[in-house]
Amino acid sequence: MTVQPLPLIAGNWKMNGLVADGLALASALGDRMRAASPAPCTMVLCPPATLLGAVAGVLEGSGVLLGGQDCHSEEAGAYTGSVSTGMLADVGCKFVIVGHSERRRDFDETDEMVAAKAAAALSRGLTPIICVGETLDQREAGQAIAVVEQQVKQSVPAGGSGVVVAYEPVWAIGTGRTASTDDVAEIHGAIRGVLGEAAIPILYGGSANPGNAAELLATPEVGGLLVGGASLDAESFWQVATAG
Ligand code: 13P
Predict the structure, then answer these.
(1) How is 25-77 classified by DSSP, letter by letter?
(2) Which domain holds residue 193?
(3) Is the pTM of this model over 0.90?
(4) Which atom of ligand 1 is nearest to the CA of 229?
(5) Cβ contacts of 70 within 8 Å, gap of 6 or more
(6) Has residue 107 got a pLDDT over 80?
(7) CATH number where 73 lies
(8) Which atom of ligand 1 is nearest the CA belonging to 208?
(9) Residue 18 belongs to a domain
(10) Quick one: what percent of the chain has pLDDT higher than 70?
(11) Residue 12 falls inside a structural domain
């Protein structure tokens, strides 16, 4: 019998949360995970960099894992404002999101830069969550599969082992508009085709919430969810976390 891995449910808090809110949210989720038996999922919280150390303390012993939202590809040096993978590992991170569409859009991050960040994460023992996804224009032009396949080929380090891929259609992020399960199955199937049979989880992200999480998690090749807005409220995120 094949044992299905637990869904990976990651909360990307983006640029939200002061110390008090962040600790309250993390501690509410940590408490629920401590009390849950068996654990409903592998849970990862990705707070802003300012909160990582404090959130790590609150999550200790809860089984909830910590992730950064971005990293630099270099280990140290004159890169004002950046955080290295070694720094993330040092404060207890096990994951780091790389290539989020907001960073591709706002900081002109290319697939090559994303691949370098992912490789830096792997070299420090972190699991990179490599984000890909087409824009609305690309989808309407019938290019969604080609765009995503290309991003996967160029953003995932050679071999791909030890990474997670997240399909986040840009038009579904923060819009309340979720991709249909047919679209998700089609794109995830295409991503799996590029990755091969490797045991790389493929997450879906884009307006995932308590109302659609079960359906998304039941879709072929969906190994978990990368959640933005709905991860900022403990009850909503817990409902997503327990939907699989
Ligand atoms: P929303 O869940 O707010 O649409 O954000 C998705 C996302 O970008 C997660 O990385």
Answers:
(1) HHHHHHHHHHH-SS-SSEEEEE--GGGHHHHHHHHTTS--EEEES---SSSSS
(2) 24-29+43-241
(3) yes
(4) 3
(5) 83, 96, 97, 98, 100, 103, 117
(6) yes
(7) 3.20.20.70
(8) 2
(9) no
(10) 98
(11) no
